[in-house]
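Dear support,

I submitted the protein below through the web form. The confirmation email said the job was done, but the results page showed an empty box. After a refresh the structure appeared. I'm attaching both so you can tell me whether what I see now is the final result or a partial one.
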Amino acid sequence: MVPLFCVVIAGLCGLVVSAPAPEETEFYTTKYDHVDVEMILNNRRLVNYYTACMLSQGPCPPEGLELKSKCV
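What the results page shows now:
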């Protein structure tokens, strides 16, 4: 469970990384700034949900789809 937990943490941290916008230099997207990462990591059900999403073993919320697109 610990290695999988580390994958989820690393993935959620990757939510803030994005490619620069065409006309402006931007280091990360603010689209998902409202996501409470600590709340997700402190909730076993949500960790399992996002883990299944990352492993393509379950449905993905919009945040999960964004994360997967940045990790692949």
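Response: this is the final, complete result; the empty box was a page-load delay. The first helix runs from residue 2 to 13.
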